[in-house]
Amino acid sequence: MEPYHSQTLKNALRLPALSWRLTFFGGHSQQVKAGWHIGTERHLAFELIQILAGSERVHLAQDAFVLTTGDILIIPPNLDHDITCLQDMSYFNFHFGLDDQELSTRLIERGLIYYPRSTQQNKELVPSLTELWRLIRPDMQYDFDTKLKVQKFFTDFLITLNRQTTIREQATSLTKLKYAGMIASGLQQQLKKQIFDFNHHGIDPRLTAALTVKKVISEAQISLSYGSEVFKDVYGVSPRAYLSELKLVEAKHLLLIPDYSILAISTALGYNEQSHFARQFKRWTGMTPNQYRNRNR
């Protein structure tokens, strides 16, 4: 525990300060017929699938899982996957992300998390997931009270997941996913640190060149060529392209802050010129940064 540095509070017991984002989106439940199919897709967030009844096959990274009633699967970010319903099915699904480095890094490095219905880990997650999907009904109100309940049950889910992944246990993961996950996690966390250091300490990333794909891969203690190959095999894009996707997500978030200048955003993301950032952003979205900001006011 960190003590206060103030003499007035030198004997006080303190709680940790919180300054992070928890994101929960795409939460839904649905009944589908055998043959229902979702083509190959990937997301920048974690995805949870819980089978309430029936079965489906999930193809990912040259492997496949058949999920049956009660099974839970957590897919890490940027992993290509497609889904086919094998038997009339109802399911619960949502996407989530979090800024906390400790848990997000651990989850990414763990790779795919598969908990069949009979496992203890599955049984521990079911109560919070049940509370979440029970909120879904035709007359559901998207009011503050409902959002608070979603926040509470989602937090309960994260508390359980954090405890489970802290304990060393056997989880189903793919051969190359560990290294690819380490690289993805490193790029995510280094970019967040770069933005934080610029915002709070005035450290210009253009002068330090702290974030490079080469550096992140070397920290995984593998060669640049092997790391790049493994990453593309698992995620379908190069580490450099993945970093560009991360920058787009952060750029969109920063553009929603009214007093944050385009120049500051460009610098925080590590672009040498604002014009380069503007061109890249338009290539990503079809809009200039100013157009995106004005449209989302």
UniProtKB/TrEMBL annotation:
Lineage, top-rank taxon, reads: Bacteria
Question: Mind telling me which InterPro entries this protein's record contains?
Answer: AraC-bd (IPR003313), Homeodomain-like_sf (IPR009057), HTH-like (IPR037923), HTH_AraC (IPR018060), HTH_AraC-typ_CS (IPR018062), RmlC-like_jellyroll (IPR014710), Tscrpt_reg_AraC-type_HTH (IPR020449)
Pfam families given in the database record: AraC_binding (PF02311), HTH_18 (PF12833)
Q: What are the transmembrane regions?
A: none
The record, for PROSITE patterns, names: HTH_ARAC_FAMILY_1, HTH_ARAC_FAMILY_2
Q: Which GO terms describe its molecular function?
A: DNA-binding transcription factor activity; sequence-specific DNA binding
Q: Where is the HTH araC/xylS-type domain?
A: 193-295
Mind listing the UniProt keywords for this protein, alphabetically? DNA-binding, Transcription, Transcription regulation
- Stored PANTHER family: ARAC-FAMILY TRANSCRIPTIONAL REGULATOR, HTH-TYPE TRANSCRIPTIONAL ACTIVATOR RHAS
> What name does the UniProt record give this protein?
Transcriptional regulator, arac family
Source organism per UniProt: Limosilactobacillus oris DSM 4864
Its taxonomic path starts at: Bacteria, Bacillati, Bacillota, Bacilli, Lactobacillales
